[in-house]
């Protein structure tokens, strides 16, 4: 009975979150197609021809997994952060807080929107990339595993941002000053193993390095970090984030007075 | 059976404001109670604690014998709340707002749709079911929040100023609806600033002041014990001039005595009516 109640509550939040993505598709699905197409044209087609081979493939082919994952990361994060914050701002989060919705259901419901949007955008961006460069799938399982893990972990980061945000500025500050640098320094545009040893160690503090490396392994079959290590790092990060957020939601931090 | 049992409930906000200073209250199942008090008395904080929107600082709360701390999910499943301010998603359709709310309580979608249709028809919103929330009038929004609060068939309905900003006709319609819910066995607690509303609708009143309950009990008993009652009396003096005077009768004085006293002076009473609602007088008396 309790499971059924929670399952229906989860489906309700998930349906609402996914419905929101399609309701405002010009803000959620359209912009990544345009920005990522520009990346492919400028970095892949124009500059890529001058760069030559990277990590055993053409620069354009090297870019594809990174740009797809970059879209996954930003869309997972911003979807959950903005949806949670606007729900708090309009106070309709109260609809869920007064109901017997458990912290786990609330968290999973909001994250489901982030995961669905980021995976959809990832697929769209990948489809766009095929107009510029042919892709290979060396290990499709790695694409699915790292794609989903990354979508989930950055949905959790988005939830964290939405939880602590008090004004609209707070929702845009983190993507600008934290997420974008992490993405650009996470091996999307270059191979981390090509960095000097010291900077390689610094780069490994960035979880996106593991996500991009594991995801790229799914396309090219080449990884600069053991794939198992990347998967473990992302899994541990997911568990720690989810556990921390569950404690916050249970205590009502950022939600209840 | 007790619908609500509150013991030593305290709430101090981070700002240091003591909104509740250890209140005790017991309400029987099936009762209808008005929470009265000036702004800042602690009524909304009390309701927010019952619904889980505000964490209490101390004390205990039991709803139908389920403790709010040890069994919060069970408590929430039994409560329906109509908040003071509109808090639904204004971009969602009326029907979706109500159906989704049922979903949060674990009501299967097909059953939720049937219940939603019933409530929207009852509250005169069925024609607006496909309209988005922001296009509704104030009264419609208020009724939408009532439909949303009742969609999971709660045993305890909390109404925080349900008729604020609603016109007279709609207010009376709302009263009828609340009476119907109450007759069906729902326990109702409502806050209101309209004392006429409390007197007409409620069996019990709880008067709060600065985070404390200063008076509570059955409306009839409290009114019987009220010390003073004011009237507006239209009199015709022996000279033939008509005059309107205000009269306050204190404990022990009756209207008959007063009229007889005027008659003895040769003054004829043409009309006599209460100056204010009796509950309003009691409220002002205990708040003074």
Structural domain tally of chain B = 2
Q: What is the CATH superfamily classification of the largest domain in chain B?
A: P-loop containing nucleotide triphosphate hydrolases
Number of helices of chain B: 10
The second-level CATH architecture of the largest domain in chain B is 3-Layer(aba) Sandwich
The number of helical elements of chain A comes to: 11
CATH topology of the largest domain in chain B: Rossmann fold
What is the CATH first-level class name of the largest domain in chain B? Alpha Beta
Q: Give me the Rg of chain B, rounded.
A: 22 Å
- Average pLDDT of chain B: 88
Give short descriptive properties of this protein.
heterodimer, A: mainly alpha, 2 strands, B: 288 residues, alpha/beta, Rossmann fold, 6-stranded mixed beta sheet, 36% helix
At a glance:
Chain A is mainly α and 257 residues long. Chain A has eleven helices and two strands; from the N terminus they run αααββαααααααα.
Describe this structure in words.
- The complex is a heterodimer of chains A (257) and B (288).
- By secondary structure, chain A is mainly α.
- Chain A has helices spanning 2-23, 25-28, 30-51, 59-89, 94-97, 103-129, 140-164, 168-184, 197-203, 207-220, 227-251, and strands spanning 53-54, 57-58.
- A two-stranded antiparallel ribbon of chain A has the order 1-2.
- In chain A, a hairpin with a 2-residue loop joins strand 1 (53-54) and strand 2.
- In chain A, helix 1 (2-23) packs parallel to helix 6.
- Chain A is globular, with a radius of gyration of 19 Å.
- In chain B, helix 3 (94-104) crosses helix 4 (109-122) and helix 7 (195-201) packs across helix 10.
- Chain B has two domains: 2-224, P-loop containing nucleotide triphosphate hydrolases (Rossmann fold), CATH 3.40.50.300; 228-287, no CATH class.
- Chain B has a six-stranded mixed beta sheet with strand order 6-7-8-3-9-10, sandwiched between helices. In chain B, strands 2-1-4-5 form a four-stranded antiparallel beta sheet, covered by helices on one side.
- With 288 residues, chain B is an alpha/beta fold.
- The longest helix of chain B has 16 residues, at 168-183.
- The two termini of chain B are 35 Å apart.
């Amino acid at each position: 009975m309790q499971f059924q109640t929670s399952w229906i509550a989860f489906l309700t939040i998930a349906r609402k979150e996914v419905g929101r993505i399609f309701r405002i598709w010009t803000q959620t699905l359209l912009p990544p197609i345009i920005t990522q197409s520009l990346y492919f044209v400028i970095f892949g087609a124009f500059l890529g021809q001058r760069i030559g081979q990277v990590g055993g493939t053409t620069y354009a082919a090297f870019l594809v997994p990174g740009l797809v994952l970059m879209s996954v990361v930003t869309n997972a994060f911003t979807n959950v952060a903005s949806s949670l914050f606007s729900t708090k701002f309009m106070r309709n989060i109260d609809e869920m807080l007064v109901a017997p919705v458990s912290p786990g259901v609330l968290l999973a419901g909001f994250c489901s929107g982030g995961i669905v949007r980021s995976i959809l955008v990832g697929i769209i961006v990948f489809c766009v990339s095929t107009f510029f460069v042919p892709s290979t799938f060396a290990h499709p399982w790695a694409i699915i595993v790292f794609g989903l893990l990354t979508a989930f972990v950055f949905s959790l980061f988005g939830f964290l941002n939405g939880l602590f945000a008090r004004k609209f500025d707070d929702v845009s500050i983190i993507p600008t000053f934290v997420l974008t640098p992490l993405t650009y320094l996470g091996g999307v545009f270059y191979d981390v193993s090509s960095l000097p040893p010291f900077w390689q160690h610094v780069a490994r503090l960035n979880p996106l390095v593991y996500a991009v490396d594991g995801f790229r392994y799914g396309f090219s079959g080449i990884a600069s970090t053991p794939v198992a290590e990347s998967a473990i790092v992302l899994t541990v990060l997911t568990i720690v984030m989810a556990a921390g957020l569950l404690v916050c939601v249970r205590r009502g931090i950022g939600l209840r007075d | 059976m007790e619908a609500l049992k509150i013991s030593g409930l305290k709430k101090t906000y981070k700002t240091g404001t003591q909104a509740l200073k250890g209140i005790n209250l017991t309400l029987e199942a099936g009762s209808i109670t008005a929470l009265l008090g000036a702004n800042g008395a602690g009524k909304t904080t009390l309701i927010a604690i019952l619904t889980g929107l505000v964490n209490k600082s101390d004390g205990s709360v039991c709803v139908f014998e389920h403790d709010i701390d040890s069994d919060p999910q069970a408590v929430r499943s039994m409560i329906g709340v109509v908040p003071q301010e509109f808090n639904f998603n204004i971009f969602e359709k009326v029907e979706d707002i109500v159906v989704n709310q049922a979903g949060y309580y674990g009501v299967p979608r097909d059953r939720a749709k049937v219940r939603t249709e019933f409530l929207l028809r009852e509250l005169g919103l069925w024609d607006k079911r496909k309209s988005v929330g922001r296009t509704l009038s104030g009264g419609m929004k208020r009724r939408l929040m009532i439909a949303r609060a009742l969609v999971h068939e709660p045993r305890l309905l909390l109404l925080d100023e349900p008729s604020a900003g609603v016109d007279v006709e709609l207010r009376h319609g709302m009263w009828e609806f609340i009476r119907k819910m109450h007759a069906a066995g729902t326990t109702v607690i409502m806050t209101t600033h309209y004392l006429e509303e409390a007197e007409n609708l409620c069996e019990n009143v709880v008067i709060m002041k600065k985070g404390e309950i200063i008076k509570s009990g059955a409306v009839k008993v409290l009114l019987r014990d009220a010390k003073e009652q004011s009237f507006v009396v239209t009199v015709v003096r022996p000279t033939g001039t008509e005059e309107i005077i205000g009269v306050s009768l204190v404990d022990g004085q009756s209207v008959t005595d007063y009229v007889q006293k005027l008659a003895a002076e040769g003054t004829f009473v043409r009309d006599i009516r209460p100056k204010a609602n009796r509950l309003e007088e009691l409220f002002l008396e205990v708040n003074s």
